[in-house]
């Protein structure tokens, strides 16, 4: 958005400058190393079996396995998904064009490309299979865990049409500062392409406690940098440090204990579209899926600072500034800061993360290192972390000073004074109904309708209850908290909660409004309506989640 | 309430047991010493001049001063409020009976008793003067600061009718376990008498940043203990401590730095009456004044534990239990606990307070020592602190386990399971309109109505904005934050905020609904309506404050 005001020429110049200033160039060798490790990490990954979704992609493949077994002799040999000699090579861009029945439905699995158009009709999960159309089937199989069985993988090979070419640079175009952006999963629904901002289908969020990396919402402000891990150097400076200290990626990985936390990240603009319906706001038209939950591994910030002999209790340090390696056209990095009271308390689990869900941090999520400040709005969890500054004052970046702040509904662009509101740090308690979708038709089972979703609160406040209603909020019942971190402290729980409920509906009703509201450990709960929360930037919408559905009689 | 189920006889027996078990007896000598110090403290007190209320008690006295000057020759000599030889002695109970014009309106100032009935008519603040009827005028003069002038004090002496007798034990009745409760200011409106629970007139709360001690809401669960300061001993035990350590009041005052913080305390049941209107709940029918803001001085808990060589980072310590000296009929103390993550972090400012607003802690607020856990529900700020236990588990007290918890509106006394909800610790963000009162008639000035109130949030989250509406929440404007601690951290602000606003009303309107909603540093805000917050104990009502008024045309 900010960048969209620039002409193409200025953007191109900016890109050149980004490359010059960041002093990072593409080092093919180390990128390959990185990719190998990435795949090894993926192999180590657990097949989290949620057992919730029999009716999903490949559910049909499973039932069709006998046909596959009969045809086994005609299938390519070797490990399913391996590159198979003699097949045509397709890059990801080519695959992504095949996302409708008319254009044929292609999917990829590891190095395999498959045309599953003829299978779609047989898929018991129906349209669900189209979520993966034009891209990798793997993140969906992380969600619909029942598919990860040898017989299903063998079955998939029946539909092989080619190998997936190395397409990392398929979009490369030297005239476009975004040309070097990574390829994304086509299931991510873009709110903007340049910079890339996208959210996954809302429905999938409630199906898995950990959001798969490739389906995790992406929120960029600038083109994605491409630092080489070998040359990566994190600069640390400011109060209590003489000059500038640097730490390599290797330093972060080897000099400090590897700490793993589970934390949800949410964009301040999540559910902005509901504000847009009331009165147009400035900002990406996010649905309710600009949030995700993942494990993050890395070095604890306080360990790193102790190593640099910084006194974390030094009262002069009031803010910790994080600068990214993504630069704006003037050469200024994306930047943000958080209060030192939060960042310098080891109990607040701020980490410099190099892994996400046990995999190498993907480029879209800050490779090689990002700040994870759990309980805090996504915007302060700076990606491609280039510099940390221990400071008396906040970051002076545009995004800290003149964005990501909340205002009274009466404030407009003529009257707004960004100095009057504090930079968003913790986010308020929120929940969303992920399933069923607004406007859908839902079955009644034993007089009840089924709904599920996520709930989360900022500042480490655990979700203690989710209330749901099938009459627009007149009567309530309590949802079941089906996935939540166990034994975490009520004020040190960074991850979200997945909930579900079966709510009675009155006989004969044709339409109902389903509602959810969450309560956190401070007993804060969600406001009833969105109108009184409206603000010119469309941030901070944590009103009740409301979904209107028709009932199948 | 809990005690109300006991027969009078059992209550009497309980009282005997309280006296026996607590091992504290009334030591007249030391009580007198205490009273002397109390008065010395009072003399040192600043005349906080808010300058907000010209139209209040004594405003009229001021205007009438010339008459007083003319009659000065007839006035008693000496310092105003001093005991004057030759006047009749009245105790506080006798004074408290004179609280209407029919019974004559008496007030006290220091050791003076005054009949101001004939002055009431001349008082420019009108009915305001009746707030002090039957009790001390001093707390109101703390609020309406303009009165603290020598000429007004001289004026007051004109109305002298007697001296105030030492009435500390006026209510004493050995058959009543509450007989030894202190005398309270008659302006406190009781929600229950035994145990004593009362709130001040709502209107006065927004008039002064610091609530005067004698007008601070009182919330007791049991009879008020009366420990002697000389014999007072705080016991500390549990993980990391061998046996039981004891600290005297003198130890707390002399061995540790005196720390002063400003913190609001709020009862979990504040604004319960709004829930009662929807469907009857169990609990005291509190209005919106079961909250107050004061400075608290004492020893920092972490300093005391360091002195006892406790490692505050010991991971075995999960909870800090506070037991009071107020005992139930079985001899079990009132008790509560807070999480160690909160209590053992010096940055959370938990103190063992022996002063309130610069005065010796009053008996009704925990004399000689109470726990102040700022940002946390009043119930955990244990008064008459007798014992601290460092523990792996929560307090097993009734009030921690089976009370002070929140539930879904659908939960009733047949289905409630207190184990399912966490004990309330931090409270959610709240605001209340203190002035005008619901149902009152208000003037329109320049097309606007004036309102003011308080706002506060738990967990140290500073109030960053208060929005107000004069059309039931359809349109909003921002209130002015007139009194707020300056330069405190956004996540370490324990005190409340006083706000005021002038909101436009549409011409020709006769009735409007005024609304306030506050926003805290985590950008949590108040829910729109009370119905979805309803719960069987009537706690945690932080819905929008709504006041219906008629407009003077």
Present the secondary structure layout.
2 copies of one chain form a homodimer.
Chain A: H1 8-22, H2 28-44, H3 59-63, H4 65-70, E1 88-90, H5 92-96, E2 99-100, E3 104-109, E4 112-115, H6 117-120, H7 138-143, H8 150-157, E5 160-164, E6 189-192, E7 197-199, H9 202-205, E8 218-219, E9 233-238, E10 244-248, H10 249-254, E11 258-266, H11 272-278, E12 291-300, H12 301-307, E13 319-327, E14 333-339, H13 340-343, E15 351-356, E16 359-360, E17 370-372, E18 385-391, H14 398-401, E19 430-435, E20 441-443, E21 448-456, E22 463-469, E23 477-478, E24 480-483, E25 497-504, E26 511-520, E27 545-552
What would your notes on this structure say?
2 copies of one chain form a homodimer. The first copy, chain A, has 553 residues and is of the alpha+beta class. Helix content of chain A is 18%, strand content 27%. Chain A has a 5-stranded mixed β-sheet with strand order 1-5-4-3-2. In chain A, strands 10-9-18-13-14 form a 5-stranded mixed β-sheet. In chain A, strands 11, 12, 15, 16 and 17 form a 5-stranded antiparallel β-sheet that branches. Chain A starts with 7 loop residues before the first helix and ends with a strand. Chain A has 3 domains: 37-164, Flavocytochrome B2, Chain A, domain 1, CATH 3.10.120.10; 233-420, Sulfite Oxidase, Chain A, domain 2; 430-552, Immunoglobulin-like (Sandwich). The longest helix of chain A is centred in the first third of the chain and has 17 residues, at 28-44. Chains A and B meet through strand 22 and strand 23 of A and strand 21 and strand 22 of B.
